[in-house]
Amino acid sequence: MDKNGKLFGKISIVDLVVILIILVVAIGGVYRFTAPGAAVSRGEATVDFTIRIEGPRAFTLENYAPGLRVYDNRANQFIGHVVGFRYEPHTVPHSLNDGTVIFAEWPDHVTIYLDVQAQGRYTDTAIYVEGTYEITANSVIMIRTRYVEVEGRIDSVWAR
Known about the structure:
Blueprint: E1 6-7, E2 11-12, H1 13-34, E3 41-57, E4 69-72, E5 77-95, E6 101-123, E7 127-129, E8 133-135, E9 140-144, E10 149-159
Antiparallel strand pairs: 1-2, 3-6, 3-10, 4-5, 4-9, 5-6, 6-7, 7-8, 9-10
């Protein structure tokens, strides 16, 4: 290194570090998008999924109707439209004195199943709706519609 901070009198150390950083980023990008395990889009699809909402009061049923837009409340992202819903009485476990557990109905509470549909795409490893939102069965989701905000669990997902 000479008195001007250049290596071999031609390349400065700062220039060399910048070139190395650019090379590392370029190699990482190439590897990320061409690696054998990289997700390759297999096609566009209509994605149907069911969200199970456990335990709301029965009067909240009037807040669900086909056509409602559903958003992920955490990401504030549109994820589909309600195409239908059904409900059943909500049951909770109770322990008896002899140690057995029974499930009893919780009065005035229901379990709601929202059927949601969205446009999406699928890969070998995942299903995405409305761009980049990954839908995974058995995941917990905070949803928001025009009328309610509630936590649910995705019961099933299928692409067609």
